[in-house]
Amino acid sequence: MLLGLSLPPKELESRYQKAKSNPGYSRLRHTTQVVGTWDDHDYGLNDAGKEFGGKITNQKLLLDFLDEPQDSPRRKQEGVYTSYMFGPVGRQIKVILLDTRYHRDPLRSDGSVLGSSQWTWLEKELNGPKSAITIIGSSVQVISNLSATTRPLFSLESWGRFPKERNRLFKLIADTKREGVFFISGDVHFGEISRYDCSIGYPVYDVTSSGLTQAVEKAVPHVFSLIVRFVAWLTPTTMRVISKNCRFRSCTYGQPNFGAIEIVWSTTPVTLKLEVRDIKGYPVTGVKFPLVELQSRGLMPSVKAGEYRRHCSLEVNLPWMIKYRLAILFYCSVSGMLFLILEASISCSSHMNFSHWLKFFARKPFHGELF
Fold it and tell me: Which helix or strand (DSSP H or E) is residue 118 part of?
């Protein structure tokens, strides 16, 4: 992610060149095929959607950075969405990269995320040749909807803020009978793995990793890291994968991180390992399961009215006391601090007045009565 708000094209291009000349990234480019899409700061403006005026110029800059061929369809379309197919027959992996910026309606509109042309393209991709695994890359989180539980303190971008679009996405995957699907995402400056069991007929995962250069604990003084971790643990979420193997109790990781996908084709059944790792390559959270788990079982799990089930009940549907406990704790803490400050001020003022009267009595001659 390239930092900066609505950077001029020349400045954005300069930052791309600086990133491209980084020794570590240069080594990666020479040993690995690098593919990608953009998020808001690569796009050009924080939290921006289709309203951003510099998207046409910045699309060219991103594709230049990714060494996209000059005759690539990505250079002729509106948006940087694309797909790839890797591996031999029987072990093929399809990678679909979405563009959640170019056509996205404003936040709070519950409008479109992908736009009509990209929806048509995505339907064609999911109906295309089958693959053992399909990885859908979204720059913002698909499953988690932390904004449902962190507002009004702060909000995060996600598909959960466009519930009609997210339902459409899940329905499209189910209708095309595409199996082996999971998501990868970023944007939030921390790592976590989410799971949703009640969407497409089998458990669907979302591996969130962000970022290699920017992370929430890196953005605050070191002494506040424990507070960040406490808030992450306290924030209610029904979708996050909780495991005893997590580095921290919250099963989130707010330091620089990256995501890793490991497929073991030699085992029976084939196993899939999804992880978030620290900058040294050690896992901080992860999940391992047989690939057959990502196949439709025919019956969709359901939740009864008033019942709340992990990996099935969305955060937005939690009881309000649970959903807003972070905000409740914050406002109660602030109120308590203000009360203590007020009480201390009154006490101090009373002490000063009492001292004043003592000095007054000490100066005033006593003749049998005070007044």
Answer: helix 116-126
